[in-house]
Amino acid sequence: MALNYRKFFLCILALLFITAVLIWSAVFQSGAASILSNVGGQDVVKVVFFDVGQGSSVFIEAANKSQVLIDGGPGSQVLNKLGKEMPFFDRSIDVIILTHPDADHLNGLADVLKNYKVYQVIDSCIEDPGGAYQEWLRLIEEKEIERLCAQAGQKIKLSERAEIDVLFPLQSLKGISVENTNSASLVIKLINGNSTILLTGDAEEATEHQLINFNIDLKSQILQVAHHGSKSSSSEKFLELVAPETAVIQVGKNNRYKHPHQEVIDRLKNAKIFRTDLDGNVEFLCGLEKCEAVR
């Protein structure tokens, strides 16, 4: 008799658990449907700014499941992040973009190249003797991945309406050695209809001035704040032209650089600010009219 009561009790617990799962699933689906409705239509692009500590990594997935990874953060955390965003059976990424070969953007990409089938990589193609960069090049060659040297004017089509435009470098940097790798950082813009996100890597003020002087269209709804909120970036004029409604700062908790700097926070006074050290992953759904934060 005691055994029957126990079975009955376990059945009740199981029923309650299943009911709770169904209720919360309906709640989340309702929330997602509401956001999709707000951003307008089916051609929605998901953009996730990963919390990888003091570093940067951004995952983009179009409605047709085209996937782009921009930078890989400072270590293997990116694999865990990708595993939560992509189904377990999906082991391929269409494009990886490396903004520049600094460790906090590059190091995690070696693990991605080893664990995923990657069809194309895009970077500045500068000369850099660093061990992690040499490993990056070795893996690209070993796995016979197509490599494209970034230059302004290039477009990466994600879907019929969505694309990534390369804004910087203004001319090819292939084979060039640079003293400050931040000066060679890619600046790219995600466009999906009227939705726009400006992704700046570690671009500094000198790069911002070049973009301004060449009358590049910088205006964007969302700005990835350059160089983790360093005061060497995000000049007043640059922010005035971008005019972001939302700004995302990818930064590690209690980092030794004291990023983000207060001057930059003050200059972003007109934007809603998300920070990965405070908010964790920051995700947006971008329809043809606007982007909306999921969390």
Task: Describe it.
The chain is an alpha/beta fold and 295 residues long. It has 2 domains: 1-39; 40-293, Ribonuclease Z/Hydroxyacylglutathione hydrolase-like (Metallo-beta-lactamase, Chain A, 4-Layer Sandwich), CATH 3.60.15. 33% of the residues lie in helices and 24% in strands. The protein is built from 8 helices and 15 strands. The chain has helices at 2-39, 77-85, 103-115, 131-142, 205-213, 236-242, 262-267, 276-279; strands at 45-49, 58-61, 67-70, 92-97, 117-123, 146-149, 155-157, 162-168, 187-192, 195-199, 222-224, 246-249, 272-275, 282-286, 291-293. The strands form 2 sheets. Strands 6-5-4-3-2-1-14-15 form an 8-stranded mixed β-sheet, with helices on one face. A 7-stranded mixed β-sheet has the order 7-8-9-10-11-12-13. α2 (77-85) links the parallel β3 and β4. α3 packs parallel to α4 (131-142). The longest helix is centred in the first third of the chain and has 38 residues, at 2-39. The chain starts with a helix and ends with a strand. Mean pLDDT is 91; it is low at 20-37.
Helix/strand layout:
Elements lengths: L1 H38 L5 E5 L8 E4 L5 E4 L6 H9 L6 E6 L5 H13 L1 E7 L7 H12 L3 E4 L5 E3 L4 E7 L18 E6 L2 E5 L5 H9 L8 E3 L11 H7 L3 E4 L12 H6 L4 E4 H4 L2 E5 L4 E3 L2
Parallel strand pairs: 3-4, 4-5, 5-6, 10-11, 11-12, 12-13
Antiparallel strand pairs: 1-2, 1-14, 2-3, 7-8, 8-9, 9-10, 14-15
Helix pairs in contact: 3-4
> Looking at the structure, what is the overall shape?
globular
Question: What share of the residues does DSSP label as strand, in percent?
Answer: 15-25%
CATH superfamily of the largest domain: Ribonuclease Z/Hydroxyacylglutathione hydrolase-like
Overall number of domains: 2
Major sheet: 8 strands, mixed
Average of per-residue pLDDT values:
91
Number of helices: 8
Helix % is: 25-40%
**SSE order in H/E notation?**
HEEEHEHEHEEEEEHEHEHEHEE
